[in-house]
Amino acid sequence: MLTDLPYDPEARRETPLAMKLKERIRREGPISVAEYMTACLQDPEHGYYRTKAAIGAKGDFITAPEISQVFGELIGLWCAVVWHQMGSPPRVNLVELGPGCGTLMRDALRAAKVVPGFSNAIELHLVETNAALRNAQTITLTTAGCEPRWIEALLAVEEATTGSFTTRVDIPKAPTLLIANELMDTRPLRQVVRNNGLWLERTVTLDDRGELTFGCSSRSAHGVGGQVDQSRPPADADIVELTDGFGDVTVPLAEIAAEYPVAALFIDYGYVAQATGDTLQAVRFHKAEHPLTSPGEADLSALVDFKAIAEAVVKSGLAVDGPVTQAEFLGSLGIMERASKLMSANPAKAAEIEMGVARLMAVPGMGSRFNAIGVRSRCLPPLPGF
User: Fold this and answer.
1) Helix (H, G, I), strand (E, B) or coil at 171
2) Residue 352, SS3?
């Protein structure tokens, strides 16, 4: 586990979502870990990402763009270079998934202004479900020079009059650049537990005191065999985390790629081959706590399986570059050179700039714990940084 925190019923907080989940479990029975994560993060009334502006010193956690402006600036220049690789089209979708306070995009757009024509070509799309964060993004991007369009998802599902379900890509079909930093780690995932030769679904249920606790289903979990790494024999009590295939990202990218070039960059903490173990963690006010302590009021995340992302991308017909560590990726983009110039231009902030870059590049630390992976149309050359 990332945070080996014990089960402590006394520490449980009776949040509004905790009460709602308890009632649901009493009424319907145990829920899966994926259902628990979905409720905690996206419940319409009490979901963490629906109601809280969580990023920053006054929030629950800090991401790379808040640590150093150089991070966002390099991403902006990365986008401009890839736009050139696409042939400098007069119109390009620039999409960010989970843009937080808008800090990354603000720094990216500022840096990209040095590339002639790029800023004028951008149509900015921000995928955001949180009204408070949309307001923060509006303020942050006031002087960015691009008017953002907000959407709740890249891929929408609509019910036709016949009763069947159809999908709709919620951005215009055009050359597309997509950025996602620390977004994939919040995707709901399944956990399965090995028990007497069977894989059982790990669940969230109630203990004898009526408190939330982890349990497991009495029936064999479905659809596990082909997703579990068979390189070593599983042992009893092993926990394996399974993803949903990333279709909400790969499907719209592949649809656009059928007509126009696309490129995407994902940066997150995770592993490059399936690991055994429970990586679900919760953070509140910059401190780790048990994932069941504060439903709806703590950030929930888990390590990202980059191998699974790569497999989903290839299956969709797109190409993959990487993954590589964050330190390798940022180093290849010239983070040290950019930091040096910034320090020379701002000597009063030189120490602060140096400390921020050192934190992003630290090995062990963020530099090795975070990975970057690139996704592109097969007609494009390998993406910068890989």
Assistant:
1) coil
2) helix
Does residue 121 surpass a pLDDT of 90? yes
Q: How many CA atoms, within 13 angstroms, populate the side-chain half-sphere of residue 222?
A: 2
Range of the domain at 117: 30-187+244-273+298-376
With a CB cutoff of 8 Å and minimum separation 6, the contacts of 238 are: 193, 194, 276
Which pLDDT belongs to residue 2? 44
Q: Encode pLDDT of 293-327 as tens digits.
A: 999 999 999 999 999 999 999 999 999 999 999 99
Give domain status of residue 142, yes or no: yes
- Residue 229 included in any domain: no
Give the angle subtended at the CA of 341 by the CAs of 337 and 345, to the nearest 5°. 170
Number of H helices, E strands in the chain: 14, 18
Residue with tokens 């603000």: 106
CATH number of the structural domain spanning residue 366: 3.40.50.150
Q: How many domains does the chain divide into?
A: 1
Q: Which residue has the tokens 């903490």?
A: 269
Task: Please report the sign of the dihedral spanned by the C-alpha atoms of residue 326, residue 328, residue 329, residue 333.
Answer: positive
Output the pTM of the full model: 0.91
Please determine, for residue 370, whether its predicted confidence score (pLDDT) is greater than 80: yes
Beta carbons within 10 angstroms of residue 29's beta carbon: 11
Q: What angle do CA 129, 370, 40 make, to 5 degrees?
A: 35
Q: pLDDT at residue 42 above 60?
A: yes
Segment 152-177, tens digit of pLDDT: 999 887 765 556 667 889 999 999 99
Residue 360 lies in a domain: yes
The residue among 232 and 337 whose pLDDT is bigger is: 337
Q: Is there a contact between 282 and 291 (Cβ–Cβ < 8 Å)?
A: yes
Pairing of strands 212-220, 262-271: unpaired
